[in-house]
Amino acid sequence: MDAARTDASEVLYEVEQHVATITLNAPERMNTISGPMLDALSRLLVQADEDPEVRCVILTGRGRAFCAGLDLRPKGDSGRTLLSSASSPTNLNLRNTPPTVMHAMDKPIICAINGGAAGYGMDTALGCDIRIMAKSAKLAAAFTRRGVVPESGGTWFLPRMIGWARAAELIFTGRTLTADEALEWGLVSHVVPDGQLMTKARELAAEIAGNAPLAVQAAKRMMRMGLSEPFNEHVHHVFLQLLPLFRSEDAAEGMAAFMEKRQPVFRGR
């Protein structure tokens, strides 16, 4: 597939070889998320999820930080910030914000953490399916040090990822973890030298994209549903998901390739 690129100034989007790369592009302020960036990120995540040519997504940042949190600078002469402008219960709408969009996506998301991920940036990284971390990068759970709570999923993700006690320690202390500590705690899958981060992310994305996309997306859907389902109900849903997959061209191709001892060529149908 030919590369396609769209520049939305503060969020970059590129598709190549079935992999969409979304890059936070405000390095001068350490990729702190402004209102327009939130909207652009949500829109591009939905675009990747709906594009049949995209089979995997890489989310990363440009510069020395992945994302240092929300951009809380006052807007114009009003003195209002991103949080204060959303504080009225009449306009608080979380349905189309990045954490909600990411959680609903069927396409796998790899977070390539190129630098510091703090606050909202840490929660965003946790919302991805797989995390790869540059050696110099850090995860900063600084919420309680700022007088707030993890506002974008951290209180949901962390107990499920690392257990209650470790999640409590990290959130209550507001501690910053090095890449090696994040690996030890089970928050990331790989730590690599800084210069190898995107190479590793692209290799993993290519491996995922080489599999049957309908099956990969169905597996993610089942995993998500399984978080809140009893076992008997879950396996019933898995069986119902298997029925259309068995009738897909990709399933036939996968079986034929196995019998013929060759690499399958999946088309997502």
From TrEMBL:
- One Pfam family, short name: ECH_1
The record's listing under InterPro entries reads: ClpP/crotonase-like_dom_sf, Enoyl-CoA_hydra/iso, Enoyl-CoA_hydra_C
Top-level taxon of the source organism: Bacteria
Note the CDD domains from the entry: crotonase-like
Q: Which PANTHER family does the record match to this protein?
A: ENOYL-COA HYDRATASE, IP11341P-RELATED
Protein family per UniProt: Belongs to the enoyl-CoA hydratase/isomerase family.
What is this protein called in UniProt? Enoyl-CoA hydratase/isomerase family protein
